Amino acid sequence: MSKRNSQQTHGTNDLVEKVLLDKNEIFADVLNGFIFNGQQVIKPEMLANTNTLSYYKANGKIHSQDRDVAKLLTIGKKKVVISLVGIENQTRPDKNMPARVMNYDAAAYRYQLTKSKKLYPVLTLVVYYGKEAWNYSRNLLGNIDMKKLPEEMRPLISDYEIKAFYRVSDLSVQELDKRFKSAFFCLTEYFIQTNAGEEYHPSAKKMSVEDIMLLLDMMNALSGTHAYDELIKKLEKRDKNEVTTMTEVLPQFIQVKIDRAKKETTKEVTAKVTEEVTKETTEKVTRDYLINILNTTNLTPDGAMDILGIPESDRSMYKNLLKKK
Fold first, then answer.
1. Exposure winner among 245, 251, 254, 274, fewest CB in 10 A?
2. CA-CA distance, 282 to 115, in Å (whole number)?
3. How high is the pLDDT of residue 130?
4. Which has the higher per-residue pLDDT, 192 or 280?
5. How far is CA 101 from CA 13, 30, 86, 97, in A?
6. Distance between the two ends of the chain, CA-based, in angstroms?
7. In sequence order, what are the beta bridge partners of 208?
8. pLDDT, tens digit, 9 for 90 and up, residues 160-204
9. Residue 62 has what pLDDT?
10. Where are the domains of the chain?
11. SS3 state at 161
């Protein structure tokens, strides 16, 4: 999906999460990075699109279930299908994940049976971006209460295991360059740093403007914020094939955050005009504005005060106020 539209940019989080990984080069990079430790085993040209939607009947009604993204893995000039591979994105632990994966895989096998007598394997990768530990079992039976079942029956219950489970925070920053070559590198870098409570400081990996926009869309969706919306709008005005880096792009984002803080503070000051704006009120608003800028940029207190135009005679006072924050 190289073409962007307003639905992709401003649609649901589920849709946004699919767009980046739906690109063959990104999908292949995820498989190579997690399964083959960075060896370039899976080539983008070995992947083919397939339907991610399946249907089932329950309570007399037809329901649908949709994978995040799935591809057919093929070999040879004739593109012989050797597997269906799906990727599921998770930002929170889900005790029902084994059952969900089992449903996705079963639907894929059921579809194959309607088309051919020969089956090819189905593999589902679960990529977990969350900060907290995944404390649920990755086996189906590990999340089911078997105590009331007679002991003789328990060994006869079939289990289902998520074998391809990858937690992004388990990777070290040093591993990333070896494992990932595409924009997915920056996505994992972002979550490793932010899950550790750090500010995001990207590496200077070269990518197209289009991939950076898709990456920022996904960072918004997976983090549950709209932090990068304004930056994405700016990037939409640039050539999507232009090659750049996140380090070149993010300084613009810092300015966006400064502008937003200034706008919010201006509104606050305007609202105060209806009241008696005392010296104490003015100092409090200015202090809050300084804190906002310092928390969202790498500027020094003097650098932030330069932006606000605070005179030298007042700076020592504001520095003392900042110490009391």
1. 274
2. 73
3. 92
4. 192
5. 20, 18, 9, 6
6. 47
7. 243
8. 999 999 999 999 888 898 999 999 999 999 899 889 988 788 888
9. 42
10. 6-202
11. strand
